[in-house]
């Protein structure tokens, strides 16, 4: 396929993520008043995903919230860089909740996606109220908003693969601070890049920022029967996911982070393990009552093929050390 056609397909995965998020909200798994604004309504009720998909969306969203919140819990200024943020709503939830003093929040995605996000924010009173006044950069490649004491937000239209060749002389991502503890989040984004490119993106931040953490969520285990089905389903949609082969197990994900220079609290867990160990019994009872989940085996298979990995360098995230594992 033409490379641009592939980019368009990859950008379409954001619509998938937004629809799944709204399904999980609509079915009562997640509370997120902003998810609805990022799915175009066709007049009917929102698309309802399978119960195992809703449970997966719930588990990964709450797991990443927990890791991000623990990172933000430290004192002083903090920075978040969300790679392939798409129409993710975490930024709105976070700024709406408050306690964001000194928070610098960056989101990066292809220009079409970052522009779409700006249009939606501008056209929506609730989102506009949270994000305040928006400024568009002169070259129109990014937009930002100064939230005063509540922090600042930057949304970049940038192909991450451009960070790969970033030598010392290359201009920094606008607004990126290199002097404050920073968390780089990839919620199903780096997996679409070639393995070396994904490593180079992490290195871009690693080489510039002293106190750095990272959280990566993506599929793994391409080598068993279920993994093969997953891979061929992706291929049928024209999507390749190089990290499936490069980091086929949670242990490989931990090794990946260590090799990238993250040596503090390095850990990778499957979504299945996170569901078992991080979600309280009360919460499980509540979720089970929302809709029947008969496909227990399917859930185990699916949840065993997605991993959340995290680690840090030059920074100790206290809350990460206290998570059940
Ligand atoms: N993180 C969001 C979430 O979890 O809801 C969206 C995930 S979506 C599956 C993957 C996102 O990564 C898409 O929005 C896509 O445009 C973005 N992406 C993939 N490759 C990228 C690249 N080379 N540069 C910038 N963004 C990229």
UniProtKB/TrEMBL annotation:
The highest taxon in the source lineage is Eukaryota
EC number(s) per UniProt? Answer: 2.1.1.233
Q: Which UniProt keywords apply?
A: Methyltransferase, S-adenosyl-L-methionine, Transferase
Q: A biological process (GO) annotation for this entry?
A: methylation
- One short Pfam name that applies is LCM
Q: Which is an annotated GO molecular function term of this record?
A: protein C-terminal leucine carboxyl O-methyltransferase activity
Which top EC class is given? transferase
Which amino acid positions bind S-adenosyl-L-methionine, per UniProt? 60, 84, 159-160, 187
Under catalytic activity, the entry for this protein gives:
[phosphatase 2A protein]-C-terminal L-leucine + S-adenosyl-L-methionine = [phosphatase 2A protein]-C-terminal L-leucine methyl ester + S-adenosyl-L-homocysteine
Record-linked InterPro entries: LCMT1 (IPR016651), Ppm1/Ppm2/Tcmp (IPR007213), SAM-dependent_MTases_sf (IPR029063)
What is the purpose of this protein?
Answer: Methylates the carboxyl group of the C-terminal leucine residue of protein phosphatase 2A catalytic subunits to form alpha-leucine ester residues.
Q: Which family does it belong to?
A: Belongs to the methyltransferase superfamily. LCMT family.
Protein name stated in the entry = Leucine carboxyl methyltransferase 1
């Amino acid at each position: 396929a033409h490379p641009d056609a592939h980019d368009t397909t990859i950008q379409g995965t954001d619509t998938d993520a937004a629809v799944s998020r709204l399904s999980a909200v609509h079915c009562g798994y997640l509370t997120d008043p902003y998810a609805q604004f990022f799915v175009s309504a066709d007049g009917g009720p929102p698309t309802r995903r399978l119960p195992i998909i809703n449970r997966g969306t719930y588990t990964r969203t709450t797991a990443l919230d927990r890791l991000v919140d623990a990172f933000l819990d430290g004192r002083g200024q903090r920075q978040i860089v969300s790679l392939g943020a798409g129409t993710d709503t975490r930024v709105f939830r976070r700024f709406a909740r408050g306690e964001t003093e000194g928070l610098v929040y960056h989101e990066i995605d292809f220009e079409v996606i970052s522009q779409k996000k700006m249009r939606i924010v501008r056209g929506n009173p609730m989102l506009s109220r949270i994000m305040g006044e928006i400024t568009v950069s002169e070259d129109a490649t990014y937009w930002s908003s100064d939230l005063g004491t509540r922090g600042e937000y930057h949304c970049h239209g940038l192909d991450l693969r451009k960070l790969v060749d970033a030598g010392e002389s290359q201009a920094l991502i606008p607004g990126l601070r290199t002097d404050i503890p920073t968390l780089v989040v990839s919620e199903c984004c780096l997996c679409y890049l070639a393995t070396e490119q994904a490593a180079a993106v992490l290195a871009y931040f690693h080489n510039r920022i002293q106190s750095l953490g990272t959280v990566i969520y993506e599929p793994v285990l391409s080598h068993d029967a279920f993994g093969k089905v997953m891979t061929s389903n992706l291929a049928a949609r024209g999507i390749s996911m190089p990290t499936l082969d490069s980091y086929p197990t949670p242990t490989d994900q931990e090794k990946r982070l260590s090799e990238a220079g993250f040596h503090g609290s390095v850990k990778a867990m499957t979504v299945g393990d996170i569901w078992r160990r991080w979600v309280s019994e009360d919460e499980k009872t509540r979720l089970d009552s929302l809709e029947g989940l008969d496909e227990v085996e399917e859930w185990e298979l699916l949840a065993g093929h997605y991993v959340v990995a995290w680690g840090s360098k030059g920074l100790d995230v206290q809350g990460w050390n206290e998570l059940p594992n």
